[in-house]
Amino acid sequence: MSAQSIIGGKEMFDPKFVGRQYGPMTYEVGREKAMEYARAIKSNDPHYLDEAFAKTTKYGGLIVPPTFAVVYSGLLCGPFFLDPELKIDFAMLVHGEQAFEFYEVVRPGDTITSSGVISKVDNKEKLDVVSFEILSKNQKGVEVCKATYSFAIRKRG
After folding, report:
1. Residues forming beta bridges with residue 130, ordered by sequence position
2. Residue 61: inside a domain, yes or no?
């Protein structure tokens, strides 16, 4: 059974896949990787880069930029995109939006485990919008972030 159904001569992403889960996947946050990321986003924030400064803050050490969540949560997009049952037409796929809710800081040395679910499918006349939610927890089981990615899949024809 395909993830796509035919309605009015156009394929649509089947809403029956709402609730399909992916993961868990685990990512170990490396100190150098986190610092490289901070530099890549052009952040000079000493919370991310200066260990001596970071030790004097309420965090007691280095933390990673919140947007680093795209690294550990984004890993689950691979299994979602490559799920053979979904049969996603990559030529028609475009990134829609992404949003993050942050609950707890992430630190170098943390092990982040993320699980994802197809949370919503909106079938529209010319495209379908698929929302994919990813919840990430640290090694203590504390939720650190919820990421929501939305993808638009344009219909052929």
Report:
1. 121, 151
2. no
- Is residue 14 a part of any domain in this protein? yes
Query: Which pLDDT tens digit goes with each residue over 97-145?
Result: 999 999 999 999 999 999 999 999 998 889 999 999 999 999 999 999 9
CATH of the domain at 94: 3.10.129.10
CA-to-CA distance for 120 and 130, rounded, in angstroms?
6
Give CA–CA dist 90/82, Å, rounded.
Answer: 10
Residue 25 — pLDDT band, cuts 50, 70, 90? very high
39 SS3 class: helix
Asked whether the bond before 15 is cis by omega within 30 degrees of 0, the reply is: no
Tell me how far apart the alpha carbons of residues 76 and 63 are, in angstroms, rounded to a whole number.
23
pTM equals: 0.88
- Helix %, strand %, coil % of the chain (to 5): 25, 40, 35
What are 74-89's pLDDT values in tens digits?
Answer: 999 999 999 999 988 8
Domain that holds residue 115: 4-29+72-154
Q: How many domains does the chain have?
A: 1
108 within some domain: yes
